[in-house]
Amino acid sequence: FLPHLVASLEQVEQSYIMVKPDGVQRGLVGEVISRFERKGFKLTGLKLFQCPKELAEEHYKDLKAKSFYPTLIDYITSGPVVCMVWEGVGVVASARKLIGSTNPLQAEPGTIRGDLAVQTGRNVIHGSDSPENGKRETALWFKEGELCEWTPAQAPWLME
Ligand code: UDP
Ligand code: MG
């Protein structure tokens, strides 16, 4: 039953997903992981981590000119985050849908932000916005030995 998995290898994307400090403090880690697990994506990296300022700045470097950048860096470094890498075909766009709009008040019910948050500055979760950024952010937050390649037992029951 493996050939179909091998054939789609080049379509497999990585999304860097992070429960932000508010999500950790509010006890939402299990809830977030559960939503990605139930969807059927594969977890290949997971750690609780206190983010240093330099890493937060590198991660959000594209937003450096924004007025909210300093408070964003304070927010992300204000307590531990849970760093994850989820893999799968189409995982990047799908994760963004599961997460919902940046402003939780505009996020649809059923999404993580739509169900669990009220403010943009406390929106619980990060998800990569493109497959390229998925790779970039994975390399930024994880060392090679921290990622795990494995085949979930459910693989043939998720993909025909
Ligand atoms: N953010 C903020 N104020 C804003 C816009 C964004 O505090 O007006 C924060 C928020 O935590 C958001 C992060 O900056 O998740 C990154 O912004 P981006 O536009 O990339 O949103 P995302 O990709 O997280 O939905
Ligand atoms: Mg973004």
Automatic annotation (TrEMBL):
> For this protein, what is the EC number?
2.7.4.6
Give the binding site residues for ATP.
K20, F68, R96, T102, R113, N123
For the keyword DNA repair, the answer is no
User: Where does the record place the catalytic residues?
Assistant: H126
Q: Name one GO molecular function term.
A: ATP binding
Sorted alphabetically, the Gene Ontology BP terms of this entry are: CTP biosynthetic process; GTP biosynthetic process; response to hydrogen peroxide; UTP biosynthetic process
Q: Which reaction does it catalyse?
A: a 2'-deoxyribonucleoside 5'-diphosphate + ATP = a 2'-deoxyribonucleoside 5'-triphosphate + ADP; a ribonucleoside 5'-diphosphate + ATP = a ribonucleoside 5'-triphosphate + ADP
Q: Which UniProt keywords apply?
A: ATP-binding, Kinase, Nucleotide-binding, Transferase
Residues of the Nucleoside diphosphate kinase-like domain = 12-149
User: According to its UniProt record, which cofactors does this protein need?
Assistant: Mg(2+)
What's this protein's family per the entry?
Belongs to the NDK family.
UniProt name for this protein: Nucleoside diphosphate kinase
Please name the source species. Answer: Hibiscus syriacus
